[in-house]
Amino acid sequence: MGLAGAKNKRKLGLDPNNTKWSRNTDTFGQKLLRAHGWEPGQYLGAKDAPHAERYTEASNKHIHVVLKEDNLGLGAKRNAGDECVGLDAFQTLLGRLNGKAEDVLESEQKEREAMKINAYLHRKLGTIRFVRGGFLVGDEMKPTKESVETIPTPSAGASKDSASEGTGKSESTDRKSKKRKASEDTDSSDSDSDIDSEKEAKKARKKEKKSKKRRAETDAETDAEAARARKKEKKEKKEKKEKKRKTEEDGDDVDSSLSDAKKAKKERKERRKERRERKEKRREKGWKEKASSDSESEADDSISREKKRRKSKGDKSAASTPLECSTFTPGGSGTSTPVPTSIRFLSRQKYIAQKRMAFADPAALNEIFMIKSVQA
Amino acid sequence: MSDTKGSKRSNTEEEDGSQDSKRLKMANGKTDEKYNPYLAHHYDDNDNSQNGFQSPLDQLQRHNTTAQQAAKLEDLDANPWTSQPHSQRYFGILKSRRDLPVHKQRQEFLDMYHSSQILVFVGETGSGKTTQIPQYVLYDELPHQTGKLIACTQPRRVAAMSVAQRVANELDVELGQEVGYSIRFENRTGPKTMLKYMTDGQLLREAMHDHDMSRYSTIIIDEAHERTLATDILMALLKQIAERRKDLKIIVMSATLDAQKFQTYFFNAPLLAVPGRTFPVEIFYTPEPERDYVEASVRTVLQIHAAEPEGDILLFLTGEEEIEDACRRINLEVDDMIRESDAGPLKVYPLYGTLPPAQQQRIFDKAPEPFRKGGRPGRKCIIATNIAETSLTIDGIVYVVDPGFSKQKIYNPRSRVESLLVSPISKASAQQRAGRAGRTRPGKCFRLYTEKAFKGELIPQTYPEILRSNLANTVLELKKLGVEDLVHFDLMDPPAPETMMRALEELNYLACLDDDGELTKLGSLASEFPLDPALAVMLISSPEFYCSNEMLSITSLLSVPQIFVRPNNARKRADEMKMQFAHPDGDHLTLLNAYHAFKGAEQSGSDVKQWCHEHFLSARHLASADNVRTQLKRIMETHDIELISTPFQDKNYYTNIRRALLAGFFMQVAMREGSNSKTYKTVKDDQLVMIHPSTVVSSPYDWVVYNEFVLTTKQYVRTVTNIRPEWLLEIAPVYYDVDTFEKGEIKTALTRITEKIRRRQAIKGDR
């Protein structure tokens, strides 16, 4: 947390590891062990035991513990890059001193700046997750290998138009593809087991989302008809493969095929959910716009806004499996938890934000320390 | 014998069995009569008239039975073990038993069992191994012929009790007769007992007096993968005994993965694996590490609730506070969610060790119904510590949320602190957690960390208890078990040498081991008590301080969980109530006061539960302390340790108790750093510690004795009592030999006190 973090003073003794004791070769225990033929540095245990190769380090030295005082998730690092303060002005200089090439330095600088802007956006508005959708090469969709993608949230009014445009478009394609999917599902329902079809549906839904995203992003004016046909082809192929794998995997699962009626119902439910989600999203956009234009009122609004946002997030993930594959804007923010959004965190959050503004905002600090950015 | 004769005849089953049994009976029995074909009608008459008395088991030949034979016996109308007709439900249970995965491999198991002395058996949870394998062994060992028992050890008391009950039902016998259990402070076995479920620690205690475990023909170690301290020692012992006693059969049962390690350890014993009845679990990772794992887990639970089809959720968190906090947050959010959308109901249940059993039971409640028919599904969400990882099975769990942390107790032999800290789990443990999702149908496990973190940051296996604990008690037990050479004792994972040294050193100071490392009389006596050596020594020497009754109570209270209850919503009142019992000089004395008040309330005939509730005391823990006290008292009586008290009116009543504490805990003393400082320094190890805020001692002295030294958020000493340094020099002169101390405040203080005592004695001498 840097300067804004909670301070934790800890008084340490002169010898917190008690090396005085461990170095003392005159203790009763050490003498006794030596008398039985133990030498320092040796493991205890049977001589030439066949399982000795499976001993762990803990059989040699006691287990070391780490005092964990925060709720940082597994693998998350404190100061994962989003908190770089002030120092980045010197990075170029330091890099030059270390003999880095000019172009490397430039790319690094750009990276840092991208990181900063992402961190800013993330802090200000939270981030929307997107899912990989493959590439459109010629008239074929090509799946890509897993990689991360950055799509900053459109924030200002200018981008709002395009966003709503995108939503509108995807709406129509969505509806169409829904219908198609329904029919397709009924076609293939005979051999599907319960779980398979469920998974498939999810896959399909995800795919839809992907395509939606792509559309919104590129505004590609491709022939919808043709694209659909292509996609259908591909999906069928993929589904077949998928199915094969699945059946191999859990062949002994009960083969209870869903009835068509049930499926239709599910579809309806999905559609309802989809609609709700879109509504939420639009509302959220509105909120965001308002928020960005009027930062004073943000605090008052944010209670309900946060709530809304969370809700919409939940709903959105209704369309895809939560957490699955949905990558998050990188920029080294290092987390996929957006800022705490619960009401109970609000006051604390506000406080932290204030503190951050004062202390951790690189721009402000640069000003305070009168550091001129190299680029500027 | 029975085999050859049995195969000659091809009559009906019934007849075949009874005749053979008759013959075998004769051969075995008291009379020398040979089977006489001319008298066949007599026998037949006999058999027809009383079909029960001669056991159909007699046709079996020990260590040469088949699954088919056993199945036939199980199908009989009368119970072969009791000769009583089977009850109604027996056949129902039998049918479900035969559906268990392990049943298919009964014959395979028997073949391997016959051919090898040691057998490693791997069966996932749900395979039925804990209940079935001992019964398979029972039908093969035929304990009624040899008079030797079959033991099956469990790491937990509750498991031993409940499994014994279950197996008694399955065999259609009464618990405590043919099938019994034995746990610390409770023994439910009888002279007829053939199959005995017990805790691993209990078997170890038995082995102290019977180094060859000669009462048993087969020993089954269940849940060996949990690697409790007692299991590890038991395995090492059995490895030795197996060499001496070739007739002893050993089965090591494990639920997981690491079976190869067991195999190599047990002279490459053969391995039998039975698939569990589990469904595939889909694993999800987060793409990036989480900033706040509690927040992330709350959010994931809500997302699952919003988006996933029916199925209950299990969330693993680390401790009571965190769990209660997450419960509150999820409840609030779900309320919001229900208000603003058509989300289904979600019931949240916490689950952790210190939760009262009644509340623990609630996790087995059914998930709530949807608000309207066909509406979104209702579900329950259980937020648990890692007790739900192995020890408890909750049906209906489909989603598991795993943040990747747990709280672990780890002992540091250098500073002698026991830390209880949140730390990353192991890979094996993560897999166990995920496996919980696939018990009833295919499930999903959401791991709140990246795949990279799973592969790179998690250790492969959880450290077994023996690497994480203070071994003073273990070493004492090993000495009592006749283990001479502790250095080369063949443990599966030998502890760090420093841990062993510290244990030996402590035992030496306590005078349980002499300077050659041999068990002393005191040590031998101390090992009779199922207590830590310090507590045992304190108890044994308490008559010298005229307060053995009181020390007995204090010891019992220290061996049960905290008796003072402090619920989150009534902390202040709880603290006020605790102050009623407070003794200004120490928490030990406060415990004693509370116990005396409890006994007083009990005797006055008031409702004890109500009384405890009003006074924020745990009736359950007080009752179990009472039980422990009775047991310890019995041990004291058998070893002729006097039970005496200083009269309460005597001004030395409490002083005596405080002094008696030092007889066992002189190594757990801390001195204040400065005159007004809040930090203390532990004697000899020089660790800086604070007195735990739960203390009632308002004005601590410069010297305190403490019961435990823990590292939670800081280094704390818990349960402290004021003492005078003069007592230290008097009660533990060896440990407090000033010359052995390093230069420092403590040495200066001790020197000054020695001087003072000398002067005082000189003055006395002059008079």
TrEMBL record, chain A:
InterPro entries: G_patch_dom, PINX1. It comes from the Eukaryota. GO terms for molecular function: nucleic acid binding. It is found in: Nucleus, Nucleolus. Keywords: Nucleus, Ribosome biogenesis, rRNA processing. Its main location: nucleus. GO terms for cellular component: nucleolus. Residues 326-341 have a biased composition (Low complexity). One of its GO terms (biological process) is rRNA processing. Residues 202-215, 229-244, 263-285 have a biased composition (Basic residues). Pfam families: G-patch. Residues 185-195 have a biased composition (Acidic residues). Residues 25-79 form the G-patch domain. Residues 1-23, 143-341 are annotated as: Disordered. Belongs to the PINX1 family. Involved in rRNA-processing at A0, A1 and A2 sites and negatively regulates telomerase. This is PinX1-related protein 1.
Automatic annotation (TrEMBL), chain B:
Gene3D superfamilies: 1.20.120.1080, P-loop containing nucleotide triphosphate hydrolases. GO terms for molecular function: ATP binding; hydrolase activity; RNA binding; RNA helicase activity. Residues 300-482 form the Helicase C-terminal domain. It is an enzyme of class 3 (hydrolase). Belongs to the DEAD box helicase family. DEAH subfamily. DDX15/PRP43 sub-subfamily. Residues 30-45 have a biased composition (Basic and acidic residues). Residues 1-56 are annotated as: Disordered. Its EC number is 3.6.4.13. Its main location: nucleus. This is RNA helicase. It is found in: Nucleus. Residues 110-275 form the Helicase ATP-binding domain.
